[in-house]
Design goal:
With 430 residues, the protein is of the alpha+beta class. 34% of the residues lie in helices and 23% in strands. The radius of gyration is 24 Å and the shape is elongated.
Length: 430
């Protein structure tokens, strides 16, 4: 029966292809690069104005005091709610509006949103403005079709997911926007591929390690103590001890891609020594000094089977051993961010509804996966205490943060149908 009821919805989505393309292109053309957090306000107001036209009540929430929030770069979010007028649950679609920096290697203009051979190119096309556009088209079709629904539908466009979500979903969750008395089911249209349902993600610990030395003249390094050499010893210990130990650990979580089923550590950056002396032609000359400080930023991704205390203790043990065994070794370690792994039960209502929709629309059984990196489910779970949350959307996972990032129009259309069907199933369920 629901298949026949939803035929008008699917027809509207198909007829909305041009609108979907324009919407996705418009969203990409807001260069919402984070950091620093450009154009958040104009982007969320664009989303809000569109949803007002479909009968949504729209609220803009600035995350005052959140990291990065300032008069120049305010952390704005939009939350739009559509009430059906009938008592029932609420389905919430949450998408982040921020994108990472473009980087090098592009052959397309990263903010032109060019449509080429059925693909829309641009920074954020895949991660995740294509998913945001698809969710909007999906709910607009549901509302316009006139099918009888219960409860409410919400759509949010939120800030700062790429830098931890503290000015976005975390802030909103703390203010009650993801509380159980307001929201029942959450779908985050992250790019995990159109035929997969993402149940959750690994954990993350970001930290900064600093080693110390003693400054001296570069021609007489024996009178100083090189902090960079001390950091080199840290890297060597990681190579000899930590990386082999992590490679031996594997998770029962269905993490993709395959390499992410083990623990991982990325050395994000190393900074050491004095700034180079600048000449008039901008060519650098080294400062003739022994470096007295060196900093390393690490990105440790860990499994649901690992405990955060042990994860931190493993690295602290390496540093402590070096302090004992290496002459002059001194260090500090500072926490930057920690997120515990999160995973929704595979039998949860939103998982079953979305899986059934994928099977109907795409004609294939969906794959249940977990993400190698974190996304805003962590805040919905840990702060909002809302467990019925997944990631599902168009976009190829491996394209995220890459040059020439794109989203396939056909995938957006199919995912919009899946989102519409899943929403219908969740809102009519007794």
């Amino acid at each position: 029966m629901s298949d026949q009821v939803l035929e008008p919805v699917f027809e509207l989505i198909e007829k909305s292809e041009d609108s979907l393309i324009r919407l996705c292109q418009d969203l990409i053309r807001f260069p919402t690069v984070n950091p620093p957090g450009n154009d958040y306000q104009v982007c969320v107001e664009y989303i809000g104005n569109r949803l007002k036209n479909s009968g949504f009540t729209v609220e803009y929430v600035r995350a005052y005091g959140a990291p990065g929030d300032s008069a120049e770069y305010p952390r704005y979010n939009v939350i739009a709610r559509y009430e059906t007028g009938r008592k029932g649950p609420c389905v919430h679609f949450n998408s982040h509006i921020d994108v990472v920096e473009t980087g090098d290697g592009w052959t397309k203009d990263p903010f032109a949103a060019d449509l080429i051979d059925g693909k829309i190119y641009g920074r954020g096309a895949c991660d995740m403005k294509g998913g945001l556009a698809a969710s909007i088209i999906a709910v607009e079709a549901l509302i316009k079709s006139g099918v009888e629904l219960k409860g409410a539908i919400e759509i949010s466009g939120t800030a700062d997911e790429e830098s931890g979500g503290l000015g976005g979903v975390a802030y909103l969750a703390e203010k009650g926007y993801f509380s159980k008395d307001r929201v029942d089911h959450v779908i985050i249209p992250e790019p995990l591929n159109v035929d997969r349902v993402c149940l959750g993600h690994r954990g993350v610990w970001w930290a900064e390690i600093e080693t110390f030395g003693r400054i001296a003249h570069g021609s007489m390094p024996f009178l100083g103590d090189c902090a960079i050499r001390h950091m080199g010893a840290v890297v060597a210990e990681f190579e000899d001890k930590l990386y082999p130990a992590m490679a031996a650990r594997h998770t029962s979580m269905p993490v993709v891609p395959e390499g992410a089923k083990q623990s991982t550590l990325n050395i994000n950056s190393i900074h050491g020594g004095q700034e180079e002396i600048k000449r008039t032609d901008n060519a650098g000359l080294p400062a003739p000094c022994v470096p007295d400080s060196c900093r390393m930023v690490i990105d440790r991704r860990f499994l649901v089977e690992e405990d955060i205390i042990n994860v931190k203790g493993e690295i602290a043990g390496i540093l402590s051993d070096l302090e004992t065994s290496r002459e002059g070794f001194r260090y500090e370690i500072r926490d930057m961010l920690e997120v515990i792994p999160s995973m929704t039960d595979e039998n949860a209502p939103v998982v079953e509804a979305t899986s059934a929709a994928i099977e109907e629309i795409l004609g294939k059984k969906p794959t249940l996966v977990c993400s190698p990196g974190t996304y805003d489910q962590k805040h919905i779970d840990r702060i909002g205490n809302l467990k019925d949350c997944i990631a599902y959307g168009p976009g190829i996972l491996e394209l995220a943060h890459q040059p020439d990032e794109y989203v396939i129009v056909e995938d957006m259309l199919n995912s919009a149908k899946v989102m519409a069907r899943a929403t219908y199933n969740l809102l009519i369920k007794e």
